[in-house]
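batch job 7 of whatever, protein = Small-conductance mechanosensitive channel
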Amino acid sequence: MNFEGFLNYTLNFIKRYDGVVFSYIAHFCFAILIFVIGRTIARFISNQLKRILFKRHVDPTVVKFVSALSYYAVIVMTLVAVLGQLGVQTASIVAIIGAAGLAVGLALQGSLSNFAAGVILIIFRPFKVGETVVINSQQGVIDSIQIFSTSMITSTNELVVIPNSQVVNTNIINYTRLPERRLDLVINVGYDSDIQKVYQVLKQAVDKTQNILTSKEPTIRLDVLDASSMNFNVLVWTLNENYGAVKGDLLENIKNGLTANNINIPYPTMDVNLNNK
């Protein structure tokens, strides 16, 4: 075949299949455009998540994991859209991805539960590092918030690691989130004590104790007439950082005041009667 024949053959081929060729070219260009836009969106979402999480002072390991997970999730959806644009049947691909995700989810059910709970803790922040909390009846200072677990240090310097799924499914008491805290004491005195004298001694003990907030009036009242004692409530307010010191000083001042005024502090007693036959 000479050159003129080859040229005629080529022109005839283009005239016959020009619609198909241009259609494939158009689909290919749209596929590239979809991929570029999808990758741009994935980077944008990942960077925004990093910025938000770093602003909330989240652990860097958690930030990297969440941002990478969001990036690759968008990339996978973009690739499925690209394959669909190129004419590939994506229904089977989506089914395979869904089945794989289900299998991985069942295999890592406990870990995924802890991870989801960790995300909830990051978003709602019921506590943060350095705060004193009670979780699962365990009190301590939060040491770190990891992807799958939360660590705290107890007052006896023990490290306690709690899975995040248990953290979000139990009551959380945060002692240090609010700046002020009320100290509640119950003081028991004998029935032979003069009530007005007890009020006077308790008020003097409160006035003598330092770091009690004067902006909130202390409460001293007779609360319960128990089987062997009269129970008085002493309610005072202080700053969180002074709570322990105020409690110790106030108890000491109350004990010294009751002793100095000969006010009896009852203790449990038992009468034993022997029947001799």
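notes: The chain has three domains: 3-107, 127-174, 180-260.
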